[in-house]
Design a protein that fits this description.
The complex is a heterotetramer, with two copies of chain A and two copies of chain B. Chain A is α/β, with parallel strands linked by helices. Chain A has helices spanning 40-47, 73-77, 95-105, 110-123, 139-152, 169-184, 196-199; strands at residues 2-11, 14-24, 29-33, 55-60, 63-64, 80-83, 157-161, 188-192, 205-210, 213-219. In chain A, the strands form two sheets. Chain A has a six-stranded mixed β-sheet, sandwiched between helices. In chain A, strands 2-1-4-5 form a four-stranded antiparallel β-sheet, covered by helices on one side. Chain A is globular and about 45 Å long. The mean pLDDT of chain A is 94. Chain B folds into two domains: 4-53 and 164-290, no CATH class; 58-154, Alpha-Beta Plaits (2-Layer Sandwich), CATH 3.30.70. In chain B, 69% of the residues lie in helices and 8% in strands. Chain B is built from nine helices and four strands; from the N terminus they run ααβαβαβαβαααα. Chain B has helices at 4-17, 19-55, 69-81, 93-104, 134-145, 157-198, 201-209, 214-254, 267-289, and strands spanning 58-63, 85-91, 122-127, 150-154. Classes of the chains: A alpha/beta, B alpha+beta. Bound molecules: adenosine-5'-triphosphate (2 copies) and magnesium ion (2 copies). One magnesium ion is lined by residues 40-41, 85, 161 of chain D.
């Protein structure tokens, strides 16, 4: 589903990833970990075409992401749900509208949008805050809204960048449960995190970035 | 197509959320358009003043002392048939003297001293204003001098050429100034909208990451610009209308003697102004959003 | 005090980081000031045109047919002593006739027909322009009529009163229009700066949370506004100077006959304009930042 | 040092904290924990006067924070260093300038600022990114800059809101080490977190918010 072959990426000549090769299979749920600044977010950005690799090839669902044409990017991105590390919520829209926006971009009609949003809000346990604006939410509440927005479109691939950094153990567990659920329904899930408790004992593949490439792979 | 209600809703919501900034923008735009319109009114009026002036321009054909009544009738018929002339006026010897008497005012006492009226009879002819080109008038005068019974043809040669120069300069000036003001106004609109959209950078960034198409991103902003521009246009049209009524009233009151004729802004203008505002800020918005790169 | 280098540095850095937006702001402000200055120049010129006109205003004192040469000399001495008059010109009977002859142009042939010159000799007096008030001129004329040897005193009564009305209307109009434009320009400046600062909301919020005083927060913004306004002023001063030179040149070239005297903008104006710009946008910035509440 | 007595706080009539009483002693290092949306950030905001309580009194270093006058707030805040949950870094300033800003607000001269900033950058292991702008930093890197900014002024009180949410275990340890260090030098430290690994085994007091007040207190 996701395949990196010899991918290198540098910012201002400072190499971040070098000759990175890895793959995530269709229907898999995998983790990426590594110290702060290792390049986890960069790796995810390469997948959703927010950054381009300097070298190497990236294929995602049989599409060559590393050479994606400008005009094809919107449609390509609609296949991918992303939980951004810095949330990227729109401050002038309510929680409801922030999530609905993702479905509007998918050209879904208002009635369908309504039921979908209500469902997903229930799943992340945020129904009571549907009409609030993001600046009025706690850190953890914002994070749950972002998770909801990434899931609501039922994407083929779900990328989650540190999705539980602001969450208490209970919410963490329930979000991880959601990820597993969506995974069993066919979505390929890739989670970047340094939170060992997320992957330890999960029985899933954990890719570890070290020295600018995937140094080793363990079973969580 | 499904997204149109969303676009409208988003545009209206954004307008409302940032209502003060939007009001500032609307007012900036309407001030800009006001300046443009004021300039247009002034130009229109300059033009009408020039037209008034040139209406006064006439050629005078003096009749030979020896010419018969028949010659005069012939000349009149000829001038009547000529489409170049707007007005033809015959002035007899006696009328000419009365004219001089009037012109002299207090000095008219000298006329009481003359033995015989030495003034010739004449035709005063008014040329169509579009024909008031020095070369044309000159050749016309030369041709007429050849006619039977004509002693002399006079026209304000110097005045005509300076009138021409004035009108040319005014036209050039109007074009240059008008263009400058138009650019200025478009620029103000553009810059206001640009600053306005700059603030939404993050929003656009997020929409892009969520996979929105260019159209999806741009449409609400364009609608917003359209609305702001139209409102700006309406406000300036309303202001112009009130200012115009006020000025016309005042001038009529203060200077009835001047009988200043301010060119009336045609009713259509009040419809065109909001459309122009809409058009300008649509263009402004479009440029201001700029190219969206994924 | 220790923070002044920091304020300056921050202001300059911010100016540089947002250079395009700042350029837009500077240009908006300079366009605004340009409009204000253009208006001032036009007003100045209207005034000088009015002054020119009123220079032409004179009183004519006709001398009695029976008056002796001595009477005339006496009158001349009296007028010379009177400080109300700027110019005194004696016109003899012969000069008067020559004048009429000139005025009649082609119709002057009638003068050849007269037996005796019926025109009186006269004095043409020019009043100081500040005395051109209808009431004053009227009483002056009545007084002069009582003098020995004076047959009649004439002045353009109607013309004088309409001149007065025109100048009054123009002054009123200038004040109203000037005020309107001033408000518009200040408003444009304010709104541009307001939008500008709106974008910095987050930054101000963070500074407040870090314990910065109001002064610490505001100072760099005020400096920025000061700089932008000054630059805007300099640009508009430079533009006005070039436009002015260009127009003066052009009018001299196209219409030498008009001898149009455009009021020269005093050199000080070019120094005042940037200061005015600085002042206006300092005020604008100050209002735009608004009250800081912790 | 910090004393809440019967403090209540609600947003839009929605009560968040109710009759909360607690205290942190001078020179203590304590934790606050509780589920997402419990009111941890709100409690910290009340301390640094970013929010005002509806009822009750808050005293901080013998100053009544709950009734602080507007014009005294800047000086008051300069005694407190805060690691904000949402970072609040200025995107148009470099890492160096972001940290230096805190010292400039303290009217320190440029020379002293320079050495202090260089020191603190070393401590959070961010020297190599001194000239970068925040948008070019990874999540964890940004968080370390915020920690540096909060510490650099050597405040009397340090409040840290989820200071390790984006950090890998290694960086987490080193930041916690810094907090203990600054604490031994006299600074009172209060850390809001749901990361159990931060406080478990620390031997410090852990205040647990539940049902809108400090329900119980455990030893970490
Ligand atoms: N736009 C950019 N320009 C320059 N450098 C960048 C940019 N984005 C990221 N970097 C650098 O690239 C490195 C990797 O960043 P990345 O965000 O991928 O790390 P990460 O593994 O996600 O870290 P964390 O766990 O802290 O989020 C960091 O050192 C960061 O400073
Ligand atoms: N400005 C605000 N307006 C309205 N409600 C608010 C506002 N700020 C916070 N809240 C609400 O108050 C509650 C407590 O928020 P707070 O940020 O204190 O939680 P928290 O304990 O820090 O949670 P987290 O661990 O997720 O950061 C939340 O439910 C939040 O939605
Ligand atoms: Mg990251
Ligand atoms: Mg919080």
């Amino acid at each position: 589903m996701i395949r990196f072959s010899n991918v290198s990426k540098s910012y201002d000549k400072e190499p971040i990833l070098k000759n990175l090769t890895m793959s995530v299979e269709r229907g898999e749920l995998a983790f990426i970990t590594g110290p702060s600044g290792a390049g986890k977010s960069t790796l995810l950005k390469l997948i959703y075409c927010s950054e381009r690799p300097d070298e190497g090839q990236i294929t995602v669902a049989d599409q060559v992401a590393s050479k994606m044409k400008q005009r094809l990017i919107p449609r390509y991105r609609r296949q991918i749900g992303v939980v951004f590390q810095d949330f990227k919520l729109l401050n002038n829209k309510t929680v409801y509208d922030n999530i609905a926006l993702a479905l509007r971009i998918h050209q879904m009609n208002s009635k369908a949008i309504r039921s979908q949003v209500i469902n997903v809000l229930k799943e992340v346990n945020m129904t009571h805050k549907a009409k609030e604006y993001p600046p009025c939410l706690s850190g953890g509440e914002q994070q749950r809204v972002v998770v909801a927005r990434a899931m609501v479109t039922k994407p083929m691939i779900l990328l989650a960048d540190e999705p539980t950094g602001n969450l208490d153990p209970e919410n963490e567990k329930s979000i991880m449960h959601l990820f597993r659920q969506i995974n069993t329904m066919g979505t390929t899930v890739l989670i970047a995190t340094h939170n060992e408790s997320l992957y330890s004992g999960s029985g899933r593949r954990v890719l570890i970035i070290k020295d600018k490439y995937i140094d080793k792979e363990i079973m969580g | 197509m499904k997204s149109i209600p969303y676009y409208l809703q988003t545009a209206l919501k954004n307008l409302w959320i940032e209502k003060w900034i939007n009001l500032l923008t609307v007012l900036s735009i309407s001030i800009g358009m006001l300046i443009l319109c004021t300039f247009s009114v002034i130009t229109l009026n300059l033009d009408s003043v020039l037209k008034q002036w040139s209406k006064g321009f006439g050629m005078v054909v003096y009749i030979n002392e020896q010419a018969s009544k028949e010659d005069e009738e012939n000349l009149k018929a000829l001038f009547m048939a000529d489409k170049d002339f707007l007005e033809i006026k015959y002035i007899s010897k006696e009328e000419a003297l009365t004219g001089v008497r009037k012109a002299l005012g207090d000095d008219a006492i000298i006329i009481d001293e003359i033995k015989e009226n030495p003034l010739p009879s004449s035709f005063e002819l008014k040329l169509q204003s579009k024909l008031l080109v020095p070369e044309y008038v000159k050749s016309k005068a030369a041709k007429m001098k050849q006619m039977a019974g004509v002693a002399e043809v006079q026209y304000g040669e110097q005045w005509l050429s300076s009138l021409n120069k004035i009108s040319e300069t005014m036209q050039k000036g109007a074009i240059v100034l008008g263009l400058a003001i138009f650019i200025a106004v478009t620029f103000i609109t553009y810059s206001t909208i640009k600053i306005f959209f700059h603030r939404r950078k993050e929003e656009v960034e997020t929409l892009k990451l969520l996979g929105a198409t260019k159209m999806f991103i741009k449409f609400p902003y364009l609608l917003e610009g359209l609305f702001i521009g139209t409102l700006g246009g309406i406000i300036s049209a309303a202001t112009i209308y009130s200012a115009y009524s006020f000025v016309t009233l005042r001038i009529g009151e203060f200077l009835p003697s001047l009988n200043f004729s301010i060119a009336v802004l045609p009713v259509q203008a009040y419809i065109i102004i909001p459309f122009a505002g809409a058009f300008m800020s649509l263009i402004g918005s479009y440029i201001a959003i700029g190219r969206i790169k994924y």
